[in-house]
Design goal:
This protein is mainly alpha-helical. It has a domain of 79 residues. The protein is globular and about 65 Å long. The protein starts with 5 loop residues before the first helix and ends in a 30-residue tail after the last helix. The relative contact order is 0.06. About 10% of the residues have low confidence. Keywords: Membrane, Transmembrane, Transmembrane helix.
Amino acid sequence: MIVHDKTLLDNLILIEEARSLQEAGFISKEQVTILKNELPVFKSNTNILVRLGFLILGVFLYASICGVIALLGLVDSNDHFFDICCYFFAAVGFFGAEVLAVQKYRQHGLDDAFTLGALFNLGLAIAISTEAYELIIAIFVTVVSFIMYKRYLHLLSMLVFCCSCSAILFYGLFEFGTIGKTILPFVAMIFAVGFYFFTKKLNEKTTQHYYHKGILIANSFCLVLFYLSCNYLVVRELSAMLLGNEIAPGKDIPFAYFFYAFTFVVPAVYLVQALKTKDRILLWISFLAIAFSIYTIRFYHSILPVEIALTLGGIVLFAITFFSIKKLKDKETGLTFKPDRINNSNAFLNAEALIVASTFGMKPEVKPQDSPMDFGGGGFSGGGSGGTF
């Protein structure tokens, strides 16, 4: 199913490991360069700005090809052409993604433009054909985005797959009318929990390391979906938008205490679990969830002016950071403020110097201590005699 050469995928992992060792100080930059020159790799861009630039360039290229097709359709003056033109545009995207994959382009920017453009035009084509039937659009995009990820290992396609899966759930519940819209937060929460444990188990069982990053994205998406599913602000605003419920002054939505508690308990659980398991992605998600929880309360209950609230918040964050660093800076194990082993530090530089010295037999110059016994002035082997031999 994977169109890419698996040898190149293995080489990419070896180079990533070599870069980690270089950052840790185990090997030099020249050794990494030699390894990169010896191993064939993909045409890719690790710099996000360069990749974004090629993405914009790819969008222009894609749009120009689609523009030529549209002009040919105008010349033909077929009234039905515009009903199916997006299918041609999507086909251009699929063909371009396949050609670029064969030419060893991966995470380059150009391949992103054609892959995402194909998914966008396919969704637009299905929308035109079905008169914007959201559920059918979500089903088609879900299937095709999963195929694109499996074939090209395109991580953004996995993100599209997760979003479209959620859209299937939402629009599927909308089909049940008021009942489906009412139970939507709880169903979304259960769906996020089930999908989270499924992806976690799948990541443990998967032997093909090529899919680990994509599964990790799906797993992290479940954590975000779980929090947003019962966030008070999200539930209240969706209740007003989907059900048309007007919240009168002094009134609140049903199960308001549950949603309030959920809004603050879940970020705290995320934070504790992240610190316990040393999961950096979960730690960032917990920080974002805490920030959104604070925004949720301020959205409805503005106790202080914005400038005062920001100042006090900054002081609190500074105090927490300062005392956390003071507490953790001397710890050697567990949760610590010290740098990771895979990091450039003086300890590794000193270790490298010792290894080089021991390899070449270099010893430090030591000045011999003066003998306390004063011998005579023998010239050759007199051992203290005054004359010469």
